[in-house]
Sequence to fold (307 residues):
Amino acid sequence: MAFLQGKLPCFCVLILCMAVLVSSHNRYYTSPSVPRLTDAFPRVPISNGFSKAFGGSNIQVINGSMATLALDKSSGSGLASVNKYHYGFFSAAIKLPAGLTSGVVVAFYLSNADVFPHNHDEIDIELLGHDKRNDWVIQTNVYANGSVNTGREEKFYLWFDPTQQQHQYSIIWNNHHIVFLVDNIPVREFQHSGSFFPSKPMSVYATIWDASQWATHGGKYPVNYRYAPFRVSFAEMEMSGCISNPTGTVTSCSKNTPSSLDPIEGPEFVKLSNQQISALGWARSKLMFYSYCKDTSRFKVMPPECK
Fold:
């Protein structure tokens, strides 16, 4: 928009000040007002709650509360939670790498593939790098019981520049539904309405890695290591839920009369409020550009939750 400098009428300037820019598409949106769920839970020091999963030399923990993860030619890097969880609220404040990031994936997700390699569960927030024409996008996905060939992907544009400062990416997972949130705005709700639902305890992961084969335009644009290292920061980690032994019998840690802030059975977490439903509709109508429920080339018969 440099060509407009000095030529915008005053009322246009006011509009720009009141809106949030979707930078890759020159759209201006005012994001809805929603409850700040991320303010309700304690933050977990990375030095206490996580261990290095891979690429240890590319991980730097700062003051115990923030970690910088890097991807270079030698390796990506990742953190894994010390505990495993059966349901809960999970969140991270993430600042993404700037510049050309084709093929790069930053992920905040839950998985139990280390314990159940043949029938694992997974709940993914994946942030996909971009070529010169597109900014970062967010891909959400759900796997259950090893269904790696039938992922439930949905993709969204962001309504801010995720490389300028940290933004919060969160997951609610309980027996009622899975909710994906960005800056506390729900962008997707996956209801527990059938047999396809993650049901086993999972660890929490924060990673950056090379996904050249598929991440950017189906693998058309691989990682360009001339721009490496690619660095992402994770902070304000929140993990509140049932800490569980994944090889033993899982029992609910919810109370008979849960508080409103219980992410397992609390009334604010078992279903979306009217305000959250409205925000969810805003995100899906304005920002979603792919849903597996509309991909007839992949699914000749749509999964039951799509109906």
Q: What stands out?
A: The radius of gyration is 20 Å. The first strand starts at residue 20 and ends at 22. The mean pLDDT is 87.
